[in-house]
Amino acid sequence: MRQDFRNNPKIKQLLLKITSDLTTLELERPLNLMEVCGTHTVSLLKFGFRHYFKDRIKFLSGPGCPVCVTSVHDIDKTISLAKKGYRIVTFGDLIKVPGSESSLEKEIAKGAKVDVVYNPLDTLRIAEQTKDEIVFIAVGFETTIPVIAGLVLDAYSKSIKNLTVLSLVKTMPKVLRFLLDNLSGKIDGFIMPGHVSVIIGSEPYKFIPEDFNIPCTISGFEPVDLGLGIESLVRQIRANKPIVDNRYTRMVKKEGNPAAKHLIESVFEPSIVSWRGFGKIEGSGLTLRDEFEDFDAEEKFDIQVTEKVEQGGCICGDIISGKQSPLDCTLFRTACTPEHPIGPCMVSFEGACSAFYKYGEK
Amino acid sequence: MSSDTILLSHGSGGKKSQELLKFIYEILGDVVINHGEDSGVISIDMSCYAMTTDSYTIDPIFFPGGNIGKLAVCGTLNDLAMVGAVPEFITLSLMIEEGFSFADLESIVRSISSELKKTSVKIIAGDTKIISRGKIDKIFINTAGFGKVIATNAISSINAQPGDSVIVTGSVGDHGSSIMAYRNGFSEGLRSDCANVAPLIQVLIEAGIDVHTLRDPTRGGLASIMNEIAESSGVSIELYEEKIPIRDSVNGVCDALGIDPLYMACEGRAAIFVPEDQAKKVIEILSDNELAKDVAIVGFVKEKSEKPKVYLRTYIGARRILPLLSREQTPRIC
After folding, report:
1. Does A301 touch chain B (CB under 8 A)?
2. I need a surface site. Which of A213, A312, B42, B105 has the fewest CB within 10 A?
3. Boundaries of domain holding A276
4. pLDDT in tens, A187-223
5. What is chain A's mean pLDDT, rounded?
6. Distance (Å, rounded) from C-alpha A231 to C-alpha A241?
7. Same domain assignment for residues A324 and A292
8. Which ipTM was obtained for this model?
């Protein structure tokens, strides 16, 4: 089934159609299409779309990599918890992200207790096997949040006493409005995040064509999916009739996944959260509802950390807001490499800098 | 060194591992006679012999398709095969944690025995050490191997020639992705490819194939060894994405975890570089063998280059660089 969307002659036809549509547009500059998902950033490079459309389409990487959008201040909070001796459980990428002075990886080398999980629910098993105070560092978007909600509900029903969650999770639609309010005129189309859309559906993006007159497509991650998505955007731009066009119908329904949405709402409520590159955006984060405050690390522990500025020169913030490309950064490939990442976009495999580095983008 | 302590990524097979090796080589100086190859080759009384050693640590020690014992035998036999040698002897060192069960030890030793019984390889020396609880993780195994080189021309990473065809003996990424999936709690349909490929290589050499370069894509996978060969031979290499055999189940788990199967380890495959006019014969010879039924020509060696690169011609026909990865892949979170 996967090979049907990967190794398929249909892709060549789609590319021809897009190329001919682009020609009739008689563009004076390349189209700026923003992908709002780290997996898309990787797919566009991995399958060669960036190379293929080099001078005709510029792909901008939006705020779609959960690690990349986490603020330095929030990273410093996780490091301070690790230093205080709490046992940290989190996803692999996060441990390498530099805070203002250290990183979880460096703290591990000094003896901090950090477990890396793929599935947040594994945290429960860890908590049950130890007397250590466990803090799960929750990052992610709507794709990951239902599982984290599940973790909280499980911990609640089992009355687990040594497990809390530091919620740094973020939701997608609000940040896109913020982005458009501050970047108007630059983005010609959006490739919407396929995984997030599985959960929230296509409705939450409607304001983009309606208020900003910008076309959107919801796309999957295989070459044929991306071909369909790009074809839709170029066609909409030609016709100047922007909509939210779902080209990932085998996975994404208009209404999303009601059960997952309900799970999120039953555990979390909207809150203000700090984004790298954007600052604080009201209602774009999620915090645990009052009834789950026993599981809220912010409630249980004193995590006051002084806000410090990011390391000089790193432009991750501008990259995830589409203002600059990794290639514009003077640190890229010189001071900042995957072995010695300075910013989170170089740490996460889904980060634009890491993807550009890995796929040799010049 | 750019950090003052050893990090896990120094063992990942990528750039950091090269940094570590450089550090050790510089201290050892000219007592090292073999750089970069899996096995060293020495000449004794007009014949050439190969020797290799490898330590095996794997979590989990039992995995779909094998266990640490089978891995410790196959890995070392494969390393000998990669310089065109027929394995004759191995050594076996078992480092066992206090509290390890006899039942598990029996399974591991039985696997070692059954793997060796398929060959004429004998154990020539061995050692056991028991280590206090918590000082090592369950069981570590070291094996060294010795064998006679039957290839008449030196098979080496420095010998890939412009025009050579690049052949892989089977689907790539099976071992690494099945281990990673197993660790993350889903292993449906996945199996390590752990196997001894020395008999495949022996058949090719005995059939008179002029093999230039051989490598088993272990740590770092196919993409990493291609980069190492390109660098060592001073040639660029181009691979065709659509020709590289990858199982659907491997693609599935790699997509779910956000990792690239081209960087996932194989433990029962070889990449073979031969002159283009012999490539078809290699396919004919190997495709009858169960271990190599998915054998495929996946690319070719381009021109000599001072800045050698590995290119991947993607499904959509674009050409991109297939670089050396600088660190271990971690599952994605979105």
Report:
1. no
2. A312
3. 1-313
4. 999 999 999 999 999 999 999 999 999 999 999 999 9
5. 92
6. 14
7. no
8. 0.73
Closest residue in B to A7 (Cα–Cα): B315
> Which band of pLDDT confidence, cut at 50, 70 and 90, is reported for residue A125?
very high
Look at chain A and report how many structural domains it folds into. Answer: 2
For the segment A321-338, the average pLDDT, to the nearest whole number, is 90
CA of B330: which chain A residue's CA is closest?
A92
Mean pLDDT of A318-341: 89
Whether residues A239 and A192 share a domain: the answer is: yes
**Residue A227 · residue A177 · CB < 8 Å:** no
Summarize the confidence of residues A292-315 as an average pLDDT. Answer: 86
pLDDT at B36 over 70: no
Cβ-based burial of A181 (10 A; exposed 0-12, middle 13-18, buried ≥19): exposed
Q: Tell me: do A152 and A298 sit in the same domain.
A: yes
- How many A/B residue pairs have CB atoms within 8 Å? 116
Structure-block tokens of residue A36: 């709002």
Tell me the whole-structure pTM to 2 decimals: 0.81
Shortest distance between the Cα of A301 and any Cα of chain B, in A, equals: 26
- Please tell me the class of the B33-149 domain: alpha beta
Residue B270 backbone dihedrals phi, psi, to 5 degrees: -135, 145
The correct CATH number of B165-321 out of 2.40.50.140, 3.90.650.10, 3.40.50.280, 3.40.50.150 is 3.90.650.10
State which residue of chain A sits closest to B259, comparing Cα positions: A349
pLDDT at B328: 60
Contact B138, B254 (CB under 8 A): no
Q: Which of A109, A96, A334 is nearest to B4 (CA)?
A: A109
Which sequence spans correspond to the domains of chain B? 33-149, 165-321
Report CA-CA distances (Å) from A175 to A182, A214, B101.
11, 16, 54
Nearest CA to A163 among A214, A213, A115?
A115
Which pLDDT band holds residue A306 (cuts at 50, 70, 90)? Answer: confident
B320 contacts in A (CB within 8 Å)?
A: 45-46, 48, 51, 359-360
Which amino acid, residue B83?
V
Co-location of A215 and A307 in the same domain: yes
For B193-213, b/e burial (b = at least 16 CB within 10 A) is: bbbbbbbbbbbbbeeebbbbb
User: How would you classify residue A249: left for phi > 0, otherwise alpha for psi between -120 and 50, otherwise beta?
Assistant: alpha
Distance from CA of A202 to the nearest CA of B (A): 18
A270 and A346 share one domain: no
B67 phi, psi to nearest 5 deg: -150, 180
